[in-house]
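Review session, final week

We close the course with one last complete record, chosen because it touches almost every idea we covered. It is Methyltransferase type 11 domain-containing protein, a protein from Streptomyces albospinus with 231 residues. Go through it on your own first, then we will talk.
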Amino acid sequence: MTTPSPQEPAGFWETTGAAKTFTHPLDPALLAEFVPRTARVLDYGCGYGRLTAELAGLGYGAVCGIDPSAALIARGRREHPGLELLHRPGLPLPFADASFDAALLFAVLTCVPEDAGQRAITGELGRLVRPGGVLYLSDVPLQADAHNQDRYGRFAERYGTYGVFATDEGGVFRHHPPERLRELLRSAGFSVVRERRGTVGTLDGRTAERLQIMARREPAGRPDGAARASG
């Protein structure tokens, strides 16, 4: 996924980043538990439409993918002709409130280093997902291995946030305390209802722990519920 920020050169996602193979897999069983195939689904930060295409292949007939990178959307239209893939470089998105039954946010926040950008995205999805609908998030928590611990420490002073780091190719990424991800969802009006952890490949060919969160959009003014973790 690819939302430019003051700390992350937008050019990375229009050049080197646009050629990457994205790696966070969808869990079809988890998705089907919460999202019927009749749902209208927004795949925000869809990149080149990898998961948008998978959703269509699973029988979800009303799926829209959106990404801020023109290069990634152009790639997606070449690789997946016929999908609804839209280039939208900024927010808000051109949809009415509560336009979607569900939204995907896969490896998006890791590509948005700054707090304001993350809150803008989750807040916009809180606007677009109808009450009772769900947000399916997959992202990267802080890692415990020596490689990541070293670069968190080396880049903390430069970026002012522990967990933000730069790569040799010019990308800037962020790994999060899990509570940071939960708090972003709560602030946007979602209640966490399921969590799962697992291991995924990374853009640089390594592996990392990932955290999946299924969160339900609460009615306006209703307190968020307690998280129930599993897996």
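Two points worth writing down before the exam:
Residues 10-139+178-217 form a domain with the Rossmann fold fold (CATH 3.40.50.150).
DSSP finds seven helices and nine strands in the chain.
Good luck, everyone.
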